[in-house]
Specification:
The complex is a heterodimer of chains A (309) and B (547). Chain A is built from 11 helices and 8 strands. With 309 residues, chain A is mainly alpha-helical. In chain A, the strands form 3 sheets. Chain A has a 3-stranded antiparallel sheet with strand order 1-3-2. Chain A has a 3-stranded antiparallel sheet with strand order 4-6-7. Classes of the chains: A mainly alpha (309), B mainly alpha (547). At the A-B interface, helix 3, helix 7 and helix 8 of A face helix 1, helix 3, helix 5, helix 6 and helix 7 of B.
């Protein structure tokens, strides 16, 4: 259940404007959820409707809040991550395959999620590493739709700044839909893969690896040829140092190739290479999802083989 | 006798990427406002912290640590990480690393230079393996390609180095660092003309002071006139165009050109601009030309740059004839630029002077792996072999020297042959060879090297117990008093026998780059920029009558 909090809006300098914005956002999210349901997006949180609940004395109208009613998961992904060493490669890839499927479902309907992060990935079923769980993506309140106007269309970055892709750190917004919106989702998906193995979002590890003069907030140049190689080098080093040793050796090259496609710091080349050569240059999350699912199955088979006496 | 270093130019340096990325030469010259740092809200951090305190899940801790991306929240987020570390809460290895290294200047981008203390036979093997792994993962990584090329050049694989650099240029054709590195490589491969063409024709050179400076320096190396020299001069006069850090090399090359043109006043002014915020390249040049410019390197930016410039400190140590410091800084410089023969030349010369002949020969051989025809190293190696009494190896090295550098290395070869004759007790033959060498230096208009040659002869005569040692010593002393040099002084300092004492050189007065004016009325100290007269006081009292 997601409630709308009017408190901040009422305390804003212009409460009417803020309330109008909040209402618009709430209606937009409701529409998106209903649309996702109608399109049978199996990995997006299901929406059952909305209702008004009283959260205090019924004499005060401010205690009546609007709620979006959605299916209830067990927990979010952050709480599921166990300490290093216990990470289960098959489970991690299975989680990623589910989330990638959700993103592919959204992209197939020209919707970009833009706020993909561990707290927005909800587990269903026995949500333990190795358990028969299913992951769904929630919080579609920040989505941007290609052909339908929404409250976040004008935002260069509608989602959480900490999970934004590197081009946004430097204020660069590509003009093309695929490069700006779908590629951003791809990066966040790659960050999620990194998070599954290391317990840390990729963004913070990369920022720590960038030499000080090139960090966001310090770099005075553009997102250009002086900056991009530094980002490429920082990503390569972080992924090789921190991710590769934690991945099952039999599939490490496959996983690293997927991760590299997802987290290419240059948005114009991010995504599946073959898909990028097609008309419209889609990022190709659907293709990457298939690769992730195949790796998940391979990992599961290897693990089953290991458990056999 | 050992070689003398050739004249230094302000050719771009080729350090490991990790070192260069921290310097201004990799930074943007743009005046655009800096990009906004990542921002988040305190309440979000408080919420995440609360969730972590109740769950102690490493996943939630990772979310908390990601708030460190916001400079305003970094301290608090890392403090939570430190709390997890202290209390033994479950955390991953990467989280531990982040907590321990956050904000430290060391980045995760690897330093791939060789360890200066490495004594292994193949010091480049491990770094090359590491770079290959990075390239296998991300072949489109221009910076790693630069490092890879540097190490390939260091092991003498120039073709592989060039291939890597060409790939880097294809990937980032307008990247300043890539362009300057390619130019540096071409100079290393004795193709200064191509290096100059690369920058002269590039569209970025006309708007980038670093590339302009390199174009002018490379034009000099290629025996041409820099196309961007006039523009560079104008740019220096336009005070607001770029920050002094970005103009240091440009001012340095303009100063060199003015000095060469005989306009010492303009040369000093340009050198002053160069020394406002010098990098390691400019400060090394300033050390080498300190006497020519007559400017003291005592300002705070100059001393800071000196402390971070192995080459400059090595040159200083050589000039002040401090053998221990020479060894230390030569090793540091070699670790920074393992393909460069200059530090190895100084190191082999030092070891040969000191009589550490095994080290001299080992380093000479190692240096020749990079460039088997390097003139200075062949001279030093021949000398080390001759001093060690290894006739066969010395003769082979001299043959190689003559084969590759017949015209310029002949007097050095003759002097080394003289040493070999002394070793065998053939003093007359040795004298004839030394005399021929000295005459050739004299004919070439190099009296300082002639004096240095005579000093070498005197010391060799002393060691070989030459019957006419006193005469050779007298001849050397007479020449050295007229034409002393740093190389002669260093040779005397490091030789075990005290056969000759040269009078200490009188310190030469230097000009300062600025003067501080103390105003007693307002009790303030104000910097007055500008070159002072020779020996001017660094602080003066303001004249109250002027007010």
């Amino acid at each position: 259940m997601k409630a709308v909090d009017f408190w901040d809006a009422l305390n804003a300098p212009d409460p009417f404007v803020e309330l109008a914005k909040l209402t618009q956002m709430n209606l937009f999210e409701r529409d998106v959820l209903a649309y996702c349901m109608s399109q049978r997006m199996t990995r997006v949180l299901r929406y059952f409707g909305h209702e008004y609940l009283w959260v205090g004395a019924q004499t005060d109208p401010m205690n009546r809040v609007s709620c979006l009613v959605m299916e209830a998961g067990t927990t979010d992904l952050r709480r599921l991550i166990v300490a290093n060493g216990l990470a289960n490669c098959a489970w991690n890839m299975h989680v990623l395959a589910d989330v990638a499927l959700a993103v592919a479902q959204l992209h197939s309907r020209d919707i970009a999620h833009q706020d993909l992060k561990p707290s927005n990935v909800i587990a269903f079923g026995e949500a333990l590493p190795g358990g028969p769980s299913q992951m769904k993506v929630g919080d579609v309140g920040r989505v941007v739709r290609k052909d339908t106007p929404g409250p976040y269309d004008a935002f260069s970055w509608p989602g959480d700044d900490r999970y934004s892709p590197p081009e946004r750190w430097y204020g660069y917004v590509p003009a093309d839909w695929c490069d700006s919106r779908e590629a951003a989702d791809a990066y966040m998906l790659g960050s999620l893969l990194f998070f599954l193995f290391t317990g840390t979002p990729l963004q913070v590890a990369v920022i720590n690896a960038i030499p000080a003069p090139f960090r966001p907030g310090i770099w005075t140049g553009r997102f250009d040829q002086d900056l991009k190689p530094v980002l490429v080098a920082a990503h390569a080093e972080v992924l090789l140092e921190n991710l590769k040793p934690l991945v099952m050796p039999e599939v490490s090259d496959l996983v690293m190739a997927i991760e590299r496609s997802l987290t290419d710091p240059v948005p114009e080349t991010r995504g599946d290479t073959r898909a990028r050569r097609q008309l419209g240059r889609p990022v190709g999350i659907d293709r990457l999802q298939q690769r992730v699912a195949a790796v998940a199955a391979q990992c599961a088979a290897i693990e089953r083989g290991r458990r056999r006496p | 006798m050992t070689s003398i270093l050739p004249t230094r130019r302000l050719i771009p340096r080729w350090r490991s990427t990790q070192q260069t990325l921290r310097r201004f030469e990799a930074a943007s010259t743009s005046d655009l406002p800096s990009s906004n740092p990542v921002r988040d809200s305190e309440s979000e951090l408080a919420n995440a912290t609360h969730v972590w305190r109740t769950t102690h899940s490493p996943g939630v801790l990772g979310d908390v640590l990601s708030f460190a991306m916001d400079p305003a929240l970094a301290e608090r987020a890392i403090a939570i990480g430190a709390e997890a570390l202290r209390t033994g809460a479950p955390m991953t290895e990467l989280q531990r690393q982040l907590v321990e290294t956050w904000g430290a200047e060391e980045s995760i981008i690897p330093h791939v230079g060789v360890d200066s203390t490495s004594t292994g036979l193949r010091p480049f093997q491990a770094p090359i393996r590491r770079l290959r792994a990075l390239l296998r993962f991300a072949p489109d990584n221009p910076l790693v390609l630069l490092d890879f090329a540097q190490l390939q050049a260091a092991v003498g694989k120039s073709a592989a180095a060039e291939r890597a650099l060409l790939t880097a240029i294809d990937l980032a054709p307008s990247n300043r660092l890539v362009l300057r590195t390619m130019a540096r490589f071409l100079v290393h491969a004795n193709r200064a003309d191509e290096a100059h063409q690369l920058l002269r024709r590039h569209r970025r050179t006309s708007v980038d002071p670093w590339l302009m400076a390199s174009e002018v320096a490379l034009a000099d190396a290629a025996g041409r006139t820099g196309e961007f020299l006039s523009k560079g001069r104008r740019l220096l006069q336009d005070k607001g165009a770029f920050r002094p850090e970005h103009l240091t090399e440009l001012a340095g090359v303009v100063a060199m050109e003015e000095l060469r043109g005989g306009n010492l006043k303009r040369a000093r002014e340009a050198q002053r601009r160069a020394l406002l915020a010098p990098n390691d390249n400019v400060i090394a040049q300033a050390v080498e030309l300190e006497a020519a410019f007559g400017i003291a390197l005592n300002t705070q930016p100059a001393t800071t740059a000196l402390n971070h410039a192995a080459e400059a400190r090595l040159l200083q140590a050589w000039i002040s004839a401090n053998p221990d410091e020479v060894e230390k800084h030569a090793l540091s410089w070699h670790a920074e630029e393992p393909f460069s023969s200059r530090p190895v030349q100084l190191l082999t010369a030092l070891y040969a002077y000191r009589g550490q002949l095994v080290q001299a020969i080992d380093w000479g051989k190692a240096g020749l792996v990079t460039d088997p025809t390097d003139r200075g190293l062949l001279i030093n190696l021949s000398f080390a072999y001759a001093k060690a009494g290894d006739q066969k190896a010395a003769a082979y090295s001299i043959r190689r020297l003559r084969q590759h550098h017949q015209s310029t290395a002949e007097p050095f070869a003759l002097a080394t042959e003289g040493l070999l004759e002394y070793h065998q007790g053939h003093f007359d033959a040795g004298d004839r060879l030394y005399n021929s060498a000295a005459r050739l230096f004299n004919l070439a208009g190099q009296p300082q090297i002639e004096a240095y040659c005579r000093l070498n002869q005197a010391l060799a005569a002393h060691d070989a117990q030459h019957p006419r040692f006193a005469e050779t010593l007298q001849a050397a002393e007479a020449l050295l008093r007229k034409h002393p040099s740093q190389d002669s002084l260093m040779l005397l300092r490091t030789h075990s026998a005290s056969v000759l004492h040269l009078p200490d050189q009188q310190p030469i007065g230097r000009r300062n780059l600025n003067q501080w004016v103390f105003d007693a009325l307002s009790n303030t100290l104000t910097e007055k920029p500008g070159i002072t007269s020779v020996g001017a006081s660094p602080i003066v009292i303001a004249d109250q009558r002027e007010r």
